[in-house]
Design brief:
Distance between the termini: 13 Å
Number of helices: 10
Largest sheet: 3 strands, mixed
Order of helices and strands: HHEEHEHHHHHEEHH
Strand order of the largest sheet: 2-1-3
Helix content: 40-55%
Length: 388
C-alpha cells in the first residue's frame, strides 16, 4: 500500500478531466436561436461540473498535503510528465480514450463512461479479475489507472488505504472553506476528514447512480433532452498544428502558458501558510480562471482555422528550470511573462475586432503578476511523479 502514490494518481485523474470538459464547453455556440439558447444552458451545466472538478483537485491535494512530512509539502502540478496527452492517452481498465472534442452527443457518451457509477462486485470469488499491470508499474503515458473499472472503484480502493493511515498534519497549508468552494472544502486532519473529502469527490462525480446533481446524471440529462450547436473545433489539437497560422499559434502558446500558470499557482498554495501569501495566490487562482483562461479558450474556439475553427490544446509550456523544486517562483514569473508576450504578438497581427476582444484579457494578465516576493523562502514539496 502506497497511499501517496494513490493520491498522486487521484490528482492526475482529476486534472485529466478538467480540459475535457472545458474544451467541450468552449465549443458550444451561443446565439438567439433555440439551439443557441440551449447552448447557453448547456455551457452553464458543464461549467458547474468544471468547478466541481477543480474542487476535487483541491480536495485530493489537501489529502496529499496532509500526509507530507519533513518539510515536503503538497503535490507538484506543474510537471510535463503529469499532464495528459489528449488524443493519445486513455483511462481506466476499459481504456476510455482521452480526447478533446466538440461537445456533440458522442462526447457526452465518453463523459458518461468516465463518470459512470461504481457497483461493487459480489464477493463470490467469480468477479471479473482486473490485472494489476498499469501505469503504476509502467510508462507514465498512454494509460491512466488501468487497474480500475471506474473512477469510483479507484476511489473505493483509495478510501481503504486511508483507513490504514495514522499520520495527518499540515492543516494550515491546505485550501480552506474560506478560500475555495465554501462548505464543500475539507481541510484534512484525521481519517474521518480524509474520508469526507474523498466522499465529496465520488458523490459529485458518479453520485452512486441516483444523485441528480452528480456529473453522471447531468450528462445523461443533457444527452437525452437538449440539442445545441458547436463550433467546428478540431479533435485533440496540438500547438504544432497551428504553427503555420501565426495568429492562432500565438493564442495557443498564450493559452498553454496560462493553463500552466494556473497549475503552478495552485501548487504553490499548498506550500505557504501565511495569510497574506495565501490570499494573494488564491486571488490569482480565481482571476486566472475567470479573466484569462476561460475567455481565451472561448475566443480560440471562434477563430477560423483549416476550414473550421481553432481550439486550445492544453499542453505543457516549458520555461527554463521550471520543473526544479527550488525554482518554482522563477518558473511562475516566466510563465506570467510568456502569457503577456504571446498575447502581444497575437494582438499585433489581429484584425480590429479580434484585437478589441483580446485587449481586456491582456489587461487582466497585468493584474495577475506573481505575488510571492523574490528571495522569499520556499517550503519544498515532493512531486506527484516521485510516487509513480
Amino acid at each position: 500500500m502506497d497511499i501517496k502514490k494513490d493520491l498522486a494518481m487521484a490528482l492526475k485523474i482529476e486534472l485529466a478531466t478538467i480540459p475535457l470538459y472545458l474544451y467541450a464547453m468552449h465549443s458550444i455556440r451561443i446565439d438567439d436561436t433555440e439551439e443557441g439558447k440551449n447552448g447557453a444552458a448547456t455551457r452553464a451545466r458543464i461549467a458547474v461540473i468544471v468547478q466541481q472538478e477543480m474542487l476535487h483537485l483541491a480536495l485530493a491535494g489537501n489529502v496529499f498535503t496532509s500526509l507530507d512530512s519533513d518539510g515536503h509539502l503538497g503535490p507538484k502540478l506543474y510537471s510535463e510528465e503529469y499532464l495528459v496527452h489528449y488524443g493519445r492517452d486513455d483511462i481506466l481498465f476499459f481504456e476510455i480514450p482521452l480526447k478533446l472534442e466538440p461537445c456533440h452527443k458522442k462526447s457526452l457518451e465518453l463523459f458518461m463512461k468516465l463518470e459512470s457509477p461504481y457497483i461493487e462486485p459480489p464477493d463470490d470469488g467469480e468477479a471479473e479479475h482486473i490485472p494489476k499491470a498499469s501505469l503504476w508499474d509502467n510508462e507514465l503515458h498512454d494509460g491512466i489507472a488501468r487497474d480500475s473499472r471506474s473512477i469510483g472503484e479507484f476511489y473505493a480502493k483509495l478510501k481503504s488505504d486511508v483507513t490504514r493511515t495514522t499520520h495527518w498534519g499540515n492543516r494550515d497549508y491546505q485550501f480552506s472553506p474560506a478560500e475555495f468552494f465554501g462548505s464543500n472544502m475539507v481541510q484534512v486532519t484525521d481519517m474521518e476528514s480524509a474520508l469526507k473529502a474523498l466522499d465529496i469527490i465520488t458523490e459529485q462525480g458518479e453520485g452512486y447512480g441516483s444523485d441528480e446533481k452528480a456529473h453522471y446524471q447531468m450528462f445523461i440529462e443533457l444527452w437525452n433532452h437538449v440539442d445545441w450547436k458547436c463550433w467546428p473545433v478540431p479533435s485533440s489539437p496540438t500547438t504544432e498544428d497551428y504553427r503555420n497560422s501565426p495568429f492562432v499559434y500565438q493564442l495557443a502558446l498564450a493559452h498553454n502558458a496560462t493553463f500552466c500558470y494556473l497549475l503552478i499557482t495552485i501548487q504553490r498554495t499548498w506550500t505557504v501558510s501565511g495569510t497574506s501569501d495565501r490570499h494573494a495566490l488564491n486571488r490569482n487562482n480565481h482571476a486566472i480562471m475567470l479573466n484569462v483562461l476561460g475567455p481565451l479558450g472561448d475566443f480560440m474556439a471562434k477563430q477560423p482555422f483549416n476550414g473550421g475553427t481553432a481550439g486550445p490544446p492544453f499542453e505543457f509550456y516549458t520555461v527554463p528550470g521550471g520543473q526544479k523544486l527550488d525554482q518554482v517562483d522563477q518558473a511562475a514569473r516566466a510563465l506570467h511573462k510568456a502569457i503577456g508576450a504571446h498575447l502581444d504578438k497575437a494582438i499585433a497581427v489581429a484584425n480590429p475586432f479580434q484585437s478589441a476582444e483580446l485587449k481586456p484579457m491582456r489587461l487582466s494578465v497585468d493584474r495577475i503578476e506573481w505575488p510571492i516576493k523574490q528571495g522569499q523562502v520556499h517550503r519544498g514539496h515532493t512531486t506527484c511523479m516521485d510516487h509513480f
